[in-house]
Design a protein that fits this description.
Number of helices: 16
Pfam family, one: VanW
InterPro entries: Glycopeptide_resist_protein (IPR052913), Vancomycin_resist_VanW (IPR007391), YoaR-like_PG-bd (IPR022029)
Organism: Isoptericola cucumis
Protein name: YoaR-like putative peptidoglycan binding domain-containing protein
Largest sheet: 4 strands, antiparallel
Length: 767
């Protein structure tokens, strides 16, 4: 208790908890407040108080104190009391917040006074091993309602005296036994989360069946629509576009791709499905609030079909590289620079097509990769340097005692650059260089005299066969090329001996010794026509056909011109009888064809006339027309053959000289499918009268060819003739039949050569 002269403190709503410490001296020292000057509460310093933890003298007696062990009070020095207004504020403590105080029995009557210690009720009694003190919980103190102090003998401890030291106002609050506010906070927080989650889910559910506003797919506005409406809108707008070919570009190349054949299909339902339906994704709700924007369409892709389509595009979209080249313009070298090409990147093209389809209306740009040329710019530059060296100066050639100079233009004309192994290699044309050298010399070469057949005394004999001189083209190209690319621009060439195509000995060993086949056809009364046959017979005679070679009548008779000895006579052109240079030569074709036919040679191509002329065997005859119709056969024997032809006895003759090898038998079918001639009426100044010729019909000819008694060829040939209709002019321009000789053949002036449908040709070789 405070000094007797110190007024008691004002009662409070709660009973203040006295400060207590454990009996353990160490703890007492640790828990004791730091020394300080006497404060407003009048507490004495630690040096003045024998026991800082001794209870006030007015405090209620401890329930568990032993008899005769009353509390002793040391006299306290008097201190001046401070005004009540300066008393520090102490918070009110409710009854349930009071700390339970237990009494401690004193070890002896002369020991230290008892002290009140706070004990947690739920904890078991604890014994002090050093003092033997046992803490026991006392019964709760009786506090009359509305009273701030305890009654005599059994109340709450009185307020500490002014001279005693008070504890912290918060010392009565314990976290171990007092109720916590955390569960309430957590409960209300949980309720808030549930409410917010429900509101969020409700918002998502409310917009689940519509597309977010301002949403477009490939430019089609579908914002705010239901799933069905959006799918219908996309199908209507994008369906036709999805069926159109896709324009694609790869660099400078362009093409189109059929989306269906490429395995691409637009899925409107799947596109909308991704934009509707219940979802807890925040982005979905956000799109409904602020707008969805552009969305890519969903495209179903058949990967295998798309890969195949892309492979098909490769060829169309490849830009071929440009190889470097070097050539000459006159004597000046010119180069074409190398340029890279491009091709689509196959591994990326499919993804680009899929992502760009329907989204863009412009052509889809496929990624490309360069394609290097085979001849790059470095190789081109190197070749250009060589070309400039070639035409740097003339090349001097010494040959056959003569000296000639090949100018730059002649060198350029004979030089070319060919690609080989990534480079341009200079090539020199030996034939060109030989011609350039010979043209600048006088009588440098002698031509070889080819051995050939001439007829003497009606028999073929071999004449000629002398060798000549020439320049070897390969050696010339090598020598001149080396000089043109080097600094020493002079070269010496050697003349070489040139053998004829056929030597005399070679021809004499060909077995040309007897006539193996001969055929003849009658002439007409047209002497001009006969002149053409005489000229043709001269050109055919002496023609040599080596084993395996093919005889061509057009090549043998050409050129069929006035300069080559031919004259104009009747021909059949486009089914019409008219005049032409070389008229009548188809009789040479028929006669020569039959000579080869009976020699057993292979037919290498022939065509009969459109109309039949009685002087020829039906179906076994031929016509010619320069540029379109030829008569050819191949000598398939081991012996050479020589042709002989002449005109005599009113007939054209053709014979084949060789060694007998084949035996030939032939026959023909009767005429069939006969079509009688008619008269065609025409008018106008161009109409000319023409009497009808032979009826039309079909016929088949047969040939069996044997060698050493064995049939080696069994052949048949069908042909159909047109009826040779007459022409009646309603206003005749001229009577062509009045100046003709006897017979229908004579009235045709030998114009029995058929030219089929070859209109407008300059040269003809009709009958």
């Amino acid at each position: 208790m405070g000094h007797p002269t110190e007024p008691a403190p004002e009662p409070s709503d709660g009973v203040p908890e006295p400060s207590a410490t454990e009996h353990d001296p160490a703890r007492a020292g640790a828990d004791a407040p730091a020394p300080q000057d006497a404060g407003p509460q009048g507490g004495a310093s630690q040096d003045d108080a024998p026991d800082d933890d001794a209870p006030h003298a007015d405090a209620a007696p401890q329930a568990d104190a032993p008899d005769g062990a009353g509390a002793q009070e040391d006299p306290q020095p008097a201190v001046d009391a401070e005004p009540e207004d300066d008393t520090p504020y102490q918070p009110s403590v409710r009854a349930y917040e009071q700390r339970v105080v237990a009494t401690v029995a004193a070890p002896s009557a002369t020991g230290s006074p008892t002290q009140a210690l706070p004990v947690v009720p739920a904890s078991p009694p604890a014994a002090d091993t050093s003092t033997g003190i046992t803490l026991t919980p006392p019964p709760p103190p009786a506090v009359p309602p509305g009273s701030g102090t305890a009654g005599d003998g059994a109340g709450a401890p009185a307020d500490p005296p002014g001279g005693g030291e008070t504890g912290s106002p918060l010392d009565g609050l314990s976290g171990d036994g007092a109720p916590s506010r955390a569960p309430k906070v957590a409960l209300w927080a949980g309720l808030g989360v549930v409410v917010l989650a429900g509101a969020y889910a409700a918002a998502q559910w409310a917009v689940a069946d519509t597309v977010p506003k301002e949403t477009t797919v490939a430019g089609v506005e579908i914002g705010g629509m239901t799933e069905q409406e959006a799918a219908a809108a996309l199908t209507a707008d994008l369906g036709p576009r999805a069926a159109e070919p896709i324009p694609v570009e790869a660099g400078e190349a362009s093409s189109t791709l059929d989306p269906a054949k490429a395995g691409l299909t637009f899925d409107a339902a799947a596109t909308v499905d991704d934009l509707t339906g219940f979802s807890l994704a925040p982005a979905r709700l956000w799109d409904h609030v602020v707008g969805g924007g552009e969305v890519a369409p969903v495209v179903d892709v058949d990967a295998g079909t798309l890969d195949a389509a892309v492979d098909g595009l490769q060829e169309a979209l490849v830009v071929e590289p440009v190889d470097g080249t070097v050539a000459f313009k006159g004597a000046k070298p010119v180069a074409t620079d190398a340029v890279d090409g491009s091709q689509p990147v196959a591994d990326e093209a499919g993804d680009v097509l899929t992502s760009s389809w329907l989204v863009t209306t412009s052509p889809v740009e496929l990624p490309t990769e360069p394609v290097a040329p085979k001849i790059d710019q470095d190789a081109t530059d190197a070749a250009l340097a060589q070309a400039e060296k070639v035409t740097e100066a003339p090349v001097t050639v010494q040959v056959g005692g003569q000296s000639v100079e090949l100018p730059e233009r002649a060198l350029a004309k004979a030089t070319s650059f060919e690609p080989k192994d990534g480079a341009l290699t200079p090539q020199f044309d030996g034939e060109q260089l030989v011609s350039a050298v010979v043209a600048r010399t006088d009588d440098l070469l002698t031509e070889p005299d080819d051995a050939h057949f001439e007829f003497s005394g009606g028999k073929p004999v071999v004449v000629g066969g002398a060798t000549g001189t020439t320049l070897d083209p390969e050696a010339t190209a090598k020598s001149v090329g080396k000089a043109a690319l080097g600094d020493d621009r002079s070269v010496e060439l050697e003349l070489t001996e040139q053998d004829p195509e056929y030597t005399k000995a070679a021809l004499e060993g060909m077995g040309v010794k007897e006539v193996v086949s001969e055929f003849s056809t009658p002439l007409t009364s047209d002497t001009v026509r006969t002149q053409n046959l005489i000229r043709g017979a001269q050109l055919v005679t002496g023609t040599f056909i080596a084993p395996g070679d093919t005889f061509s009548l057009v090549d043998t008779l050409s050129p069929i011109t006035l300069e080559n000895g031919y004259v104009a006579s009747g021909v059949v052109s486009n089914g019409m009888h008219t005049e032409g240079v070389g008229g009548g030569l188809s009789q040479m074709a028929t006669t020569t064809y039959n000579a080869g036919f009976f020699a057993g040679y292979d037919d290498a191509g022939h065509q009969p006339h459109s109309y039949w002329f009685t002087r020829y065997p039906a179906g076994r005859e031929a016509t010619i027309y320069v540029g379109s119709i030829d008569m050819k056969f191949t000598n398939d024997t081991p012996y050479g053959a020589v042709m002989q032809s002449w005109v005599s006895g009113g007939e054209l003759h053709v014979a084949v000289w060789s060694t007998e090898y084949y035996d030939v038998k032939t026959s023909a079918s009767p005429k069939r499918n006969v079509v009688p001639t008619t008269t065609v009426h025409q008018s106008g100044p161009e109409c000319e009268y023409y009497p009808a010729g032979q009826d039309g019909f079909s016929i088949t000819n047969y040939r069996k060819v044997s060698h050493d008694g064995k049939v080696v060829k069994d052949e048949s040939y069908n042909w159909t003739y047109k009826p040779d209709n007459g022409i009646q002019c309603d206003e005749p321009k001229a009577d062509r039949g009045s100046d003709r000789d006897d017979g229908k053949d004579d009235k045709k002036s030998g114009g029995d050569q058929d030219q089929g449908d070859d209109a407008g040709r300059d040269e003809s070789s009709g009958d």
